[in-house]
Specification:
mainly alpha, about 70% helix, about 280 residues
Length: about 280
Amino acid sequence: MEKPQRKARWFFGGLASVGAAVVTHPLDLIKVTLQTQQGHLSVAQLIPKLAREQGILVFYNGLSASMLRQMTYSTARFGVYEAGKDYVKTDTFAGKVALAGASGLVGGIVGTPADMVNVRMQNDVKLPVEQRRNYKNAVDGLFRVYRQEGFARLFSGATTATARGILMTIGQIAFYDQTKIYLLATPYFHDNLITHFTASLVAGTIATTLTQPLDVLKTRSMNAKPGEYAGLWDVVKHTAKLGPLGFFKGYVPAFVRLGPHTIITFVFLEQLRLNFGTTPS
């Protein structure tokens, strides 16, 4: 069959990620709120508290920033990975990891400003009214950070965001591709929705585990007020006060969010590839 032979266009990953972000945004907001609190509210306690105090639409606070983040971060990393296949051999797992790491590096840098605004807009829900930043949307947030805090502030948390982007892209894309190859090599799987679902679930689990400590540090760094932390090591020490598990704070909602996000992204991506991809000449 010709359809499975089709190649994804460089921007398909960004489109698929935007679609997934719309579905999983409430889970991402809960994850960010758990990571930035110093208290010990559980998911079961936090959800009704937010809904009761601010209404059900609070779970879509910052959606525009989440979509902008995927348009920059995911479009860059998926695009570099797809385009890089013409220059890097990906017939081995090592090749896939190398290309995915480079793609994550680019995506992490490009996506940092939108990621920071996304974190801030989501975290507004737990701040007292007088302390909220109240960005109108993602673009308004970018301009206000630039005007009020300077250009460099747009890349606050870039070190951890980039490191996380590298690990995330390896966990998601490289492991998805490799898992899919292993599954298709058995007589039980074919290039269909079941295989795409299974491979993306494995990739989502691995990506969550690899990135959670950096995700916690990135979120705290981006959400910090100017001067709150002396540097990345200060963020590490502050988080360490919560114990080793502090670096995995919000793991369950992170997995609950990233698992479906990864699955939806790759299901959308595969459908875009099969129906609108380019046919090799």
